[in-house]
TrEMBL record:
Lineage, top ranks: Bacteria, Pseudomonadati, Pseudomonadota, Gammaproteobacteria, Enterobacterales
Source organism, top-level taxon: Bacteria
Organism of derivation: Enterobacter hormaechei subsp. xiangfangensis
Protein name: Baseplate assembly protein
Secretion signal span: none
Domain Gp5/Type VI secretion system Vgr protein OB-fold: 15-81
Length: 193
């Protein structure tokens, strides 16, 4: 076997570290031993009708797949955990996604629990509706809605302040109703009108 053929075979797969990322052209440069690559495309989980964007980061350890054993034709075919970027989970029963700002998405199949945390804001925009089908939805702090409708009753505890507009109960506007048959003294008023 010739030295050139051995070199090509040895270069089919290489491990390297990302040293630069160009997010506009979806390419990275990699240091692999003495080799510093040109700009290489990275593997996308999906890049068709369904598409996922999760760019590599500087310092990430990656696999290079060198077509024909030539590093000039290489593409990034995957990532490897490293001491600088360890795995964010350790259970065979969970999916974990993390972001550089500390946000994380975790689904634990053993506990059947979904957790998303660490982000400053979350936005869901649906053109028709959003349905939460569960026995209880709990908001631990301030809940704000432009309008609301209760269809099966409920209870409120604590002080409630109303301002602006009308508050109507069973057809009676609470702040402007009058009582008929009022007499002076210790008598009680009649019902509202």
């Amino acid at each position: 076997m010739s030295a050139e053929l051995i070199r090509l075979l040895e270069n089919i797969l290489r491990v390297g570290v990302v040293i630069a990322v160009d997010e506009e052209s979806w390419r990275v440069r990699v240091q692999s031993g003495e080799l510093q690559t040109d700009w290489l495309r990275w593997n996308a989980t999906r890049a068709g009708a369904f598409s996922i964007w999760m760019p590599p980061s500087v310092g990430e350890q990656v696999w290079l797949g060198c077509i024909g054993g030539n590093p000039e034709t290489a593409v990034i075919i995957g990532s490897l955990y490293s001491s600088e970027h360890p795995a964010p989970g350790s259970s065979l029963q969970e999916i974990v996604l993390t972001a550089p700002d500390g946000a994380s998405f975790r689904y634990d199949a053993e506990a059947s629990a979904l957790e998303a945390q660490g982000m400053k804001t979350a936005h869901i925009k649906a053109s028709a509706s959003v349905t939460l089908e569960t026995p209880i939805v709990e908001c631990t702090d301030h809940l704000k809605a432009r309008t609301f409708e209760l269809s099966e009753g409920g209870t409120m505890k604590g002080n409630v302040t109303h301002s602006g507009g009308s508050l109507t109960s069973n057809g009676v506007t609470v702040h402007s109703h009058v009582h008929g048959g009022v007499q002076g003294g210790s008598s009680n008023t009649g019902g509202p009108k």
